[in-house]
Amino acid sequence: MIRLPLLLLFSAALFSAGVYGVLARRNGVLVLMSIELMLNAVTINLVAFSAALRDVTGQVFALFVIAVAAAEVGIGLAIVILIYRNRETINVDEVNLLKW
Questions:
Q1: Among 29, 34, 53, 78, which residue's Cβ finds the most Cβ atoms within 10 Å?
Q2: Other Cβ atoms within 10 Å of 1 Cβ, number
Q3: For the residues of the chain, what is the DSSP string, one character each?
Q4: Which residue in 47, 43, 45 sits closest to 56, CA to CA?
Q5: pLDDT in tens, 65-93
Q6: What are φ and ψ of residue 90, in 5° steps?
Q7: What φ, ψ does residue 91 adopt, rounded to 5°?
């Protein structure tokens, strides 16, 4: 069995990589993938604490996070494809549809 501090360290590294990807990348698809990394880090934390505390609540929340991540990918990719069709770019810096 993997110890809790190692899981927390792995989760922190995964979350940090996701934050870096969101802040540094300009490609819309890569930003979505970075958000997925952050959600997976949260899921690892929930399952790790659930196993350490011997409570299934964390695992239930992990399933909820996975469902939210799947919905986020579906909607996010649809938005990215729609933006690409209209603007022919997925660079998030060049998309200004919601600006005045």
A1: 34
A2: 5
A3: ---HHHHHHHHHHHHHHHHHHHHH--BHHHHHHHHHHHHHHHHHHHHHHHHHHT-SHHHHHHHHHHHHHHHHHHHHHHHHHHHHHHHS--BTTT--TT--
A4: 47
A5: 999 999 999 999 999 999 899 888 888 88
A6: -120, 15
A7: -75, 120
- Give CA–CA dist 91/37, Å, rounded: 20
Both structure tokens of 86: 């209209």
Which residue reads 């940090």 in tokens?
16
Q: What is the full DSSP assignment across 18-40?
A: HHHHHHH--BHHHHHHHHHHHHH
Structure tokens at 46: 């929930």
- Rounded to 5 degrees, φ, ψ at 63 are -65, -40
The gap between the terminal CA atoms of the chain, to the nearest Å, is 54
What digits encode the pLDDT tens for the residues 23-42? Answer: 999 898 999 999 999 999 99
